[in-house]
Amino acid sequence: MVVFPNTKINLGLNILSRRDDGYHNISSAFYPLPFEEILEILPAEEFRFETSGLSIPGKADSNLIVKACKLLREQYDLPPVHIHLHKVIPMGAGLGGGSADAAFTIKALNSIFELALSDEDMEKLAGQLGSDCPFFIKNKAVLAEGTGTDFSPIALDLSGKYLVLVCPEVHVGTAEAYSKVKPGLPDKSIKEIIEKMPVAEWRHYLKNDFEASVFPIYPEIEAVKNTLYDSGAIYASMSGSGSSVYGIFDSEPASMPMKATWQGILP
């Protein structure tokens, strides 16, 4: 079976408070982006995991695909599989590529071995692997709250808009980004802004709180956002804790003075 794990972007990201368990309560709209990589899973005599494309740091055992496979094999006594990932989505860019890989692994194994798991069952399994993983089970726009795993519906449709995604060649550590953020409640909620305001007004209200801590350390990321606005974006923002930045346009920009990691019309 061949599947195509995609990315997501954050439309707004508010760090509301620090929790007693050391994590943070957040609010953010997650929106799927059709920027995809290729994942093939086949039954095999012994387990194998191979990759091509972008180099993936670390040992194979730490990859979320391997962890997802191990989780299901332990719970459902599955036979071995051969997995090949062609990696396209940059790592550490705030796009959830690794989380998508894990979620799509769960969905593919559910289909291959006819486990009859519901979306809710798969979301619970994905939640054991990472906070972003459950989103990619249904892969639809949601308002994410709590630690980023409490989903609720949000009226959000960007179909027909043109999006340009740029990933500067810098890595922003999540712990580093959180260490410099000051939690607090925004004047307007993300849900209120997105559902009641046109996209062209978002730039004045819809904030990613990580930008205040990341931009002073990595001015090249802020420069990308400014360039997207200069090129005609009606809204631009860093996604997650960075380093990726996206711009939303009403139509394809006539010119772009930087190389895009992905660009296209949103479905």
From TrEMBL:
It comes from the Bacteria. GO terms for molecular function: 4-(cytidine 5'-diphospho)-2-C-methyl-D-erythritol kinase activity. Keywords: ATP-binding, Isoprene biosynthesis, Kinase, Nucleotide-binding, Transferase. The active site is at K8, D132. Residues 201-252 form the GHMP kinase C-terminal domain. InterPro entries: GHMP_kinase_C_dom, GHMP_kinase_C_sf, GHMP_kinase_N_dom, IspE, Ribosomal_Su5_D2-typ_SF, Ribsml_uS5_D2-typ_fold_subgr. Residues 63-137 form the GHMP kinase N-terminal domain. Pathway: Isoprenoid biosynthesis; isopentenyl diphosphate biosynthesis via DXP pathway; isopentenyl diphosphate from 1-deoxy-D-xylulose 5-phosphate: step 3/6. The keyword Kinase applies. It catalyses: 4-CDP-2-C-methyl-D-erythritol + ATP = 4-CDP-2-C-methyl-D-erythritol 2-phosphate + ADP + H(+). Gene3D superfamilies: 3.30.230.10, GHMP kinase, C-terminal domain. Its EC number is 2.7.1.148. ATP binds at P90, M91, G92, A93, G94, L95, G96, G97, G98, S99, A100. SUPFAM superfamilies: GHMP Kinase, C-terminal domain (SSF55060), Ribosomal protein S5 domain 2-like (SSF54211). Catalyzes the phosphorylation of the position 2 hydroxy group of 4-diphosphocytidyl-2C-methyl-D-erythritol. Belongs to the GHMP kinase family. IspE subfamily. This is 4-diphosphocytidyl-2-C-methyl-D-erythritol kinase. It comes from Fulvivirga kasyanovii. The gene is ispE.
